[in-house]
Each structure stands twice: as structure tokens, then as C-alpha cells.
Amino acid sequence: MLGSITAACLVLSAAAAAFSPDTAPRPTLVLVADAPISFAGRGFAPRERVTVRLSWNGVALKRQVVATGLGTFRVRFAGASRTECEPAVGVATGSAGSRASSRKIRIPPACGIAQQD
Q1: Is 70 inside a domain boundary?
Q2: 77 and 54 Cβ atoms separated by less than 8 Å
Q3: CA atoms lying within 13 Å on the CB side of residue 42
Q4: In what order do the strands lie in the sheet with 73-77?
Q5: What b/e string do you get for 78-94 counting C-beta neighbours within 10 Å, with b at 16 or more?
Q6: Residue 38 neighbours by CB distance under 10 Å
Q7: For position 82, what pLDDT does the model report?
Q8: Is the pTM of this model over 0.90?
Q9: Domain that holds residue 41
């Protein structure tokens, strides 16, 4: 009986360690669509207010969203679309201090821009 109690305590301790703040996922921001430009975020604090800024084609736009209870969100910039030849940078900053960025700045050779070494 004592052995099973000890084993149960070890399992509970391991489970608690797995969900400790030290192992929380880092915030990430990913460009998920080009038309309209859309981002998905994860790893933010539950219900954290997040401001997402987009720099694209000489324009700066911003949207505010609230992360879900799991710390995820999606944001669309209606009217903003890009081709693969246009760089775009997104930055998400949360009210609890979370921060992530997504940079789509590599321009493929098909765009007609010669890369310099």
C-alpha cells in the first residue's frame, strides 16, 4: 500500500513539473495567409490582450485581440494582401509581457531582384 502511495505521489509530482511556468511554451507568431494577411499566435498567457502590428508594403497597421484560455489567437488584416515578392513583418505584444514576431522578408529569385553577396 505504501509503495502505491509513493508511486502516485511521484506521478503527481512529475505532472505538476510538466505544467510549471518554466516549461510554458514560448510565444510564437506565424503568418498563415497572404490574402488577407493573417497571423496565428500561441504560447501567450490565457486571455491576454495582444496587440499585433503589421509592417507591409510601406504601411503600418495594428489590431488588438484577446488570446483564448489556451493562449492562442488568430488575427486578420482585412484589405491587406501580399504577394510572395512583398516582405511583411508582424509583431505581437501581450499585456502580460509576452512577445513574438514573424518576418516574411526572404524574397524569392523569381521576383526579379538580384541578391548581392
Answers
A1: yes
A2: yes
A3: 7
A4: 28-34, 37-42, 73-77
A5: eebebeeebebebbbbb
A6: 19
A7: 85
A8: no
A9: 24-106
Asked whether residue 37 is domain-assigned, the answer is: yes
Rounded average pLDDT over 47-64 = 94
| 17 touches 11 (CB < 8 A) | no
Is 84 domain-assigned? yes
| CA distance linking residue 100 with residue 52, whole number of Å | 9
Length of the chain: 117
Q: For strand 73-77 and strand 37-42, is the pairing parallel, antiparallel, or unpaired?
A: antiparallel
pLDDT digits (tens, 9 = 90+) for 32-52: 998 999 999 999 999 999 999
Side-chain half-sphere CA neighbours of 56 within 13 A: 27
Answer for the pair 102, 41: CB distance below 8 angstroms, yes or no: no
- pLDDT value at residue 11: 45
Alpha carbon distance 102, 112 (integer Å): 24
Whole-Å CA distances, 109 to 34, 83, 89, 113: 19, 13, 20, 6
| CATH for 56 | 2.60.40.10
